[in-house]
């Protein structure tokens, strides 16, 4: 075993250029990092130190690179959170999750009404912030949850805390996951979208919950936890993996809380052996889907500042990996994710050389590397890059 602990940070949606099959997804030419930097030149010195400038299309700066770097491309039939994360851990999604470009069909919503005991308003493809503002007054008047989807395979349910209490919203989502969105309607995620405030000032809270479908393959988390290692999830990680194989999970509301939780885990549980993984969601939910280039750039720079402190807290027996689960180019048409390669940045103070890890042919190389590090076998997909690190 080379490292006692592996820390994985997923910068949600921060892609590094169109994947070879991007045209199939309508994303030929998409480039999250490149197009942000072309509009708002990025100041991300710590990411550059890890090798970002070697793999992303950002303006050149003289930088001493201390990390190893590469790109990963997805083989899953999708470009969303679930397919990306599951592929990381050895479970590529071979058949795309169902999407609803014409909104949900009547029989699905009939089942929703019968199983949950609620009717609904909405049933459309919509921006989450826009739909709660537009339908919020009707939601208050009728007491009915707001139901909507997006280009992703999601069934989203929004409710104001004063109309449908948080725990009741979670109950509705749980029923929808287990009893409504099944068979041909088994979407990737059911998402609880609680909000607060008054008309004209409705705001979504940090109490979002994702209810993922169950994977059909055993993934890295289970192999690790069954072998006695700690598997700690921060942010959306627990929801994305349906809490399977996790030994601990810490819900957070934003990127800053993600970083604070990571640093706390490093400090308090320094002797733990295993995996510590966090998903930093603000890039995607706050700026990518909203096509806010400046906000996305600011978010990347804020993350980079906090990353600088984290790098000083990584020990020799720990390996840090930073990657992304898909792209979400804020300059692109529409509001959907974009099919892109993603950065692979790897660092430990114990490593003495900066290595070009090349283009990895599947995200599952990350999971296979984790398995290799802890001497475990069982995954069907991926090639470890552990022996390439120096």
TrEMBL record:
Cellular-component GO terms for this entry: cytosol
EC number of the protein: 5.4.2.7
Residue stretches in coiled coil: none
GO BP annotations listed: 2-deoxyribose 1-phosphate catabolic process; 5-phosphoribose 1-diphosphate biosynthetic process; metabolic compound salvage; nucleotide metabolic process
Cofactor(s) named in the record: Mn(2+)
Enzyme class: isomerase
Positions bound to Mn(2+) 1: 12, 325-326
Stored InterPro entries: Alkaline_phosphatase_core_sf (IPR017850), DeoB (IPR010045), Metalloenzyme (IPR006124), Phosphopentomutase_DeoB_cap_sf (IPR024052)
NCBIfam families associated with the record: deoB, PRK05362.1
Family per similarity comment: Belongs to the phosphopentomutase family.
Name of the protein described by the UniProt record: Phosphopentomutase
Organism: Megasphaera elsdenii DSM 20460
Organism ancestry: Bacteria, Bacillati, Bacillota, Negativicutes, Veillonellales
Originating gene: deoB
